[in-house]
Structure formats: C-alpha cells, structure tokens
Amino acid sequence: MKDNYLTVTALTKYLKRKLDTDPHLKNIWLKGEISNFKHHSRGHMYLTIKDDQTRIQAVMFAGNNRFLKFMPENGMKVLIKGEISIFEAYGQYQLYIQNMEPDGIGALYLAFEQLKEKLHKKGYFDQQYKKKIPVHPKHIGVITSPTGAAVRDIITTIKRRYPIVSLTVIPVLVQGQNAANSIKQAIDKANEKAMFDVLIVGRGGGSIEELWSFNEEIVAEAIFRSSIPVISAVGHETDLTISDFVADMRAPTPTGAAELAVPSHIELKERITMLRRSVKKEMTRKVLQEERQIQRIKDSYAFRYPQLLLKQKEQELDHSVGNLQKSASNYVKQTEKAYQDLFKRLLAQHPKKQIQQSHNELNQLTKRQKYYMNLLIEQGSNQLRNTIDKLTLVNPLAIMQRGFAIPYTQRGNIIKSTKQVKEKDSITLHMADGRLSCYVEEIEEEHNGGKE
Predict the structure, then answer these.
(1) Roughly what angle, to the nearest 10 degrees, separates helices 179-193 and 217-225?
(2) What distance separates the 2 farthest-apart alpha carbons in the chain?
(3) Of 141, 177, 197, 410, whose CB is crowded by the most CB atoms within 10 A?
(4) Is 74 helix (H, G, I), strand (E, B) or coil?
(5) Do β-strands 450-451 and 446-447 pair in parallel, antiparallel, or remain unpaired?
(6) Which residue(s) pair with 58 in the sheet?
C-alpha cells in the first residue's frame, strides 16, 4: 500500500515534464502589469505579472533582457512572450519571459524617454555645459559613415562655404548592434588626438531603429565628456535623438551641421566688403569732423588774438596767485592759532602745573587744618579752665583756705549737726594747714537761724 504514495519531488518532476511537453505552454503571449520587480546583480530580472484577479511569478534571464531597450518598472503594463514551466525548488509554476514590450507605446519610445529623463537629471542637457562652437575653425572632424550621403553633403558644403578649413572623416558604423560603441570610440579617439576644433557627429535619415545608436547612453556620455565642441547632425529635421540634446549644438540635417560649423566665404567676402565700405565711410566722416574741428580751432579767439588771450590768462594767473597766497596766509594763521591754543591747553594740563596746583591745595588744606586744630585746642583750654574754676569753687581745701574748718568725731565722722556730739566730747577740726583737737563745753542749737 505504501508504494502508492509519491514523493513531492516525483510529483513536481511529473508535472514539470507534462508542462514542458505541452506545445500550448511553450509559446505564451501574455499581457499584464508588472509588480515586485527586482533586477538581480547577476542581470536576471524577477517580477510578478498580474491583472485584476490573479498573478503569476515570472523571470527574465540576463541573456534575454540584455536586448531590452527600456527598463521595466513596477506598475508598467507590458506585452510578454514566453513559456510556462515549473521551478522545481519551490514547486511552483512560473513564466519564463523571452521578450517584453511596453503595452500601449513602443519599447524604443519608452527607452528614449527613460534615458532622456535619466540624463536630464544628471545635468547632461544643462546649458552651462554647452561649449561654444568656434567661429573660424581650422580643423573639423566628421564622425559618420564614410559611404553615406551625409558625409558627402557635409564635405561638399564645408568645401563650398569655407575651403581653407582642414577636414578629417572618422569612419564609424551608424546603425546596427555595434554602431554605438563605434561612435563612442571615434569621439574618444578624436579627443585623444586633440587636433580638431569641432566635431560633427551624425548620419542621414532613417527609421528610429536605424537611428537608435545615437540614442544609446554610451554615445551620450562620450559627447558629454568631449572637450571638443560637438555638433549633432542625425537624420532629418523631424528626427530628434538623445545625442541632439547632449551635443553643444544640434543641426537639423548633416548639411545644416556643415553650415553651422563653418562660415560662408562668400558671406565673409560680402561682410568684408561691407565692413570696408563702413570703415571708409566712417573714416571720411571722421576726417571731415576733424577738419571742421581744426577749422573751429583756427577761428577761435585764442588763435585769432593769442596775445590778448595771453594777457588775460596772465591776469587770471595773478589773481589766482594772489588768492592762493591769501589762502596760504590764512591757512598759516589759522594753523598757528590752532597750535597756540593747543599749546595753551597743553600747558594748562601739564603734569608739573597739575602737581603745583595740587601742592598749593595741600598747603591750603594744611593751613586750614592747623587753624581748626588751634581753634579746637583753644576752645578746649577755655572749657578746661572754666571747669577748673567751677571745681575750685566747690573744692573743700579752697573753702578751708578761706577760714572754714571741717569737724570730725573721735570716730572720724564729719559732724553735720549738733546732735552728733554732746558736751564734754572731744572733736577734731581739720583746717587748711592742719588739725585742731577741741573740747565741747556747751551746745547751742539754732532753728531757722535763731537760738533755742
């Protein structure tokens, strides 16, 4: 019973073999919208193709996508040719894309617009990088097919318009798979030689596929890097390529490029003739103008009466000299006055004078200090004498010298009242010049000045 079971690998291989042998799945034409787009570093493209209801995984290997003229993007609607098979590792079926084109617009148009936008963002079309085409080139390099009609038109036109210029044709392929690289190498080689004043890069008219080499990025980069000014001349006037945007100047046709590269010797001769006429006319006018000027000078007052003019000028000179001397004298006086004022101010502010003034002020302050000190001492002395006089009046010794004595008991107490002593008591009288020992014989008391 167990032999009836299949392995996953066996089932997957069986289904893959069935799908690979189905002729209807070997040539699938499919349209849808790109999502989950991823460009692997090895060049393979992995994406999902979807519509409103379902989706399918898809892969476009590098061997197939290297021929794409445009870069797929998420959200882009595309037309796809491929085959269905199974990716065994995941056991899922997927679409192996062989060719892919944008749905609605051509692949070349989309590639043109994508590269144009890319180079525009990089600044390849900016006017600031445009080099000026020399007016009178000495050597022109023509990068085009040596067998096309364009090179004949360019050579014929240049030789007819400006035969003295040197012309070198650098042959290149102008269509086909190797054309872009051929044009790029020719531009680089011309820059390495550094012998050209201007380069004409172009070809005659053709379909967009035939002109496509001039829409390749390597050609645009070579033109942008070129140190030699480049005139782009691709196809007819209505044809517009990436090279036309990058070049320093675009010509509508190869013949137009030749006309832009060199001036016409006929036009130059006509211009020289016209310039000669203009110069002759201008010289004649200038001579007449100068003659009239000379005649006006001859008729002028100075030439007719030079001595009078000289006298007048001498008088004016004297007047001017007088004014000058007066001005000089005034200036000297003003300067001297200013100098004296400054000198006075300097003397007034001289350090010695400042010191002397400070010294005088110090003396004045010293005198005033001494005066007030003496005044204070005198006032103090007077006050002291008054105080001494007042103290002298109440000094007991002074009172005693006027004949008064102070009585003391035997115990040394001052006797202020008769009641402190009794008859027969011994007392001591202190005099100004000594003591007296006394004996109380009788006591008489007085009240209110009378006796009791």
Answers:
(1) 10
(2) 187
(3) 141
(4) coil
(5) antiparallel
(6) 47, 95
334 CA to centre of own chain: 52
Structure tokens given for 4? 């009836």
What confidence tens digit (pLDDT) does each residue in 285-344 have? 999 999 999 998 888 877 888 887 788 888 889 899 999 999 999 999 999 999 999 998
Alpha-carbon Rg for the chain in angstroms: 67
Contacts for 368 with CB less than 8 Å, ≥ 6 apart = none
Task: Say if CB 80 and CB 30 are below 8 A apart.
Answer: yes
The answer to whether 231 and 143 are in contact (CB under 8 A) is no
In the numeric block, which tokens belong to residue 407?
């009585």
Spatial neighbors of 143 by CB under 8 A, at least 6 apart, are 170, 172, 183, 186, 187, 190, 199, 200, 201, 202
Q: What is the DSSP string of 226-278?
A: -SS-EEEEESSTT---HHHHHSSEE-SSHHHHHHHHS--HHHHHHHHHHHHHH
CA distance 388 to 374: 21
Give the other-Cβ count within 10 Å of 126's Cβ: 9
Q: From residue 379, how far is each of 344, 346, 368, 373 by CA, in Å?
A: 48, 47, 16, 10
Tell me how many degrees the CA angle 157-159-164 measures, rounded to the nearest 5. 140
pLDDT of residue 452: 39
Asked if 92 contacts 57 with a C-beta cutoff of 8 angstroms, the reply is: yes
For residue 449, give the H/E element and its range. Answer: none
Name residues whose C-beta falls within 8 Å of residue 452's C-beta, 6 or more positions apart in sequence: 444, 445, 446
pLDDT score recorded for residue 451: 42
Q: Which element (helix H / strand E) includes 201?
A: strand 198-203
